[in-house]
Amino acid sequence: MPGKDRSTRRYFLKAAGGTALAGAMVRITLQPADATPAMLNAAIRNVVGEASLRTGRVKLDIPPLVENGNTVPMTVSVTSPMTADDYVRSIHVFNEKNPQPYIGNFYLGPAAGRAQVSTRIRLADSQKVVAIAQMSDGSFWSASVDVVVTLAACTEEL
């Protein structure tokens, strides 16, 4: 463009667009990765390592049947005195079929007073949700719930 300032954003965008059209046309389709139960197990092992995972002490309160996966209420509570010697160090929540297996990590200490977290989550489809609590003694406790979702979330058609 003679006589025009070539450092403007408009000039750059026109030049970049022309270059893109002159090159080969490439179609890119973005889709969420298909999560698998193996990804869930790998995510859990990433948190607990080789430690044994016990059932009990953890209560995962989530509706077993939800109409809309966009806002699913969830509460995780752990039986613990929450004293300086015996407390919940962390709570980790995982899912089986969302694009990412991690829902959330919550870190607590004795000053929390109560080992409980509540939030709303998104679920892409009917799946298993797993909550794991790490105690101050290094032990891991878990609970899981199978949730049926009638209207999926986390998936968008592009």
Kindly identify the CATH topology: Immunoglobulin-like
Q: What number of domains?
A: 1
CATH class: Mainly Beta
Largest sheet: 6 strands, mixed
Which series of helices and strands comes N to C? HHEEEEEEEEE
CATH superfamily: SoxY domain
**Termini separation (Å)?**
36 Å
Strand count: 9
Q: Quote the average pLDDT.
A: 85
Task: State the helical fraction.
Answer: 10-25%
The radius of gyration is 23 Å
**CATH architecture tag:** Sandwich
Shape: extended
Strand content: 35-45%
Number of helices: 2
Structural class, by secondary structure, is: alpha+beta
- Uncertain segments: none
Description:
This protein is of the alpha+beta class. It has a single domain, classed as SoxY domain (Immunoglobulin-like, Sandwich), CATH 2.60.40. The protein has helices spanning 9-22, 37-48, and strands at 53-55, 58-61, 65-68, 72-78, 88-95, 102-107, 116-121, 127-135, 140-151. Strands 1, 3, 5, 6, 8 and 9 form a six-stranded mixed sheet that branches.
Write a brief caption for the model.
By secondary structure, the chain is an alpha+beta fold.
Summary keywords:
158 residues, Immunoglobulin-like, alpha+beta, single chain, three-stranded antiparallel sheet, 37% strand
Topology diagram in text:
Elements: H1 9-22, H2 37-48, E1 53-55, E2 58-61, E3 65-68, E4 72-78, E5 88-95, E6 102-107, E7 116-121, E8 127-135, E9 140-151
Parallel strand pairs: 1-9, 3-9
Antiparallel strand pairs: 2-4, 4-7, 5-6, 5-8, 8-9
